[in-house]
Write a structure and sequence with these properties.
The protein is of the alpha+beta class. It contains four helices and seven strands. Strand 3 and strand 4 form a beta hairpin. The relative contact order is 0.16.
Length: 157
């Protein structure tokens, strides 16, 4: 049986930077420049950002970030699962870690912008209870994006 772990780590690691580059390349293959807003390691290392790395047998196979937005809200960003980590529960494990962390730090709502053509991601998030919502924060309506959210914690429905 393979061993999958998820923990909070720095994004400033070679194998994590490789995952972020994979994410950038995938997004570039699907969306025009105006439809992409990647965050780099500096932003992902800032205060209020919780960066998660999924490891399969010790090898980084996925990552994502939870960014505190204030008012009990957090935004999920930069979710990527390497081909070697797919069909292993990696995405679900990352989401579970993010949601548990959100509850621990007092967040009540997790929101995200997802690429409209990222169908596998839509299935993962909706299967985990995320629902459609409108744009939030600085995000605006775009044909390249959908917006999802989920209540977490004791007030979650």
């Amino acid at each position: 049986m393979t061993r999958l772990t998820v923990g909070v780590e720095t994004p400033r690691q070679v194998e994590v930077l490789d995952l972020l580059q994979q994410s950038d390349a995938y997004s570039a293959s699907l969306y025009p420049v105006e439809g992409r807003r990647p965050l780099g390691a500096d932003t992902l290392s800032a205060p209020g950002v919780h960066f998660f790395v999924a490891r399969l047998e010790g090898v980084a196979v996925g990552c994502c970030a939870l960014i505190e937005q204030g008012g009990g809200m957090g935004e999920l960003k930069r979710m990527i699962v390497d081909k070697g980590g797919r069909q292993q529960g990696t995405g679900r494990a990352l989401l579970a870690a993010v949601e548990a962390s959100a509850v621990r730090i007092g967040l009540r709502l997790i929101q995200m912008e997802v690429g409209a053509r990222s169908i596998g991601a839509h299935a993962l998030y909706r299967g985990a209870g995320y629902r459609d919502c409108g744009p939030f924060g600085a995000h605006r309506l775009s044909p390249h994006s959908i917006f999802l959210e989920k209540q977490v914690g004791t007030d979650a429905a």
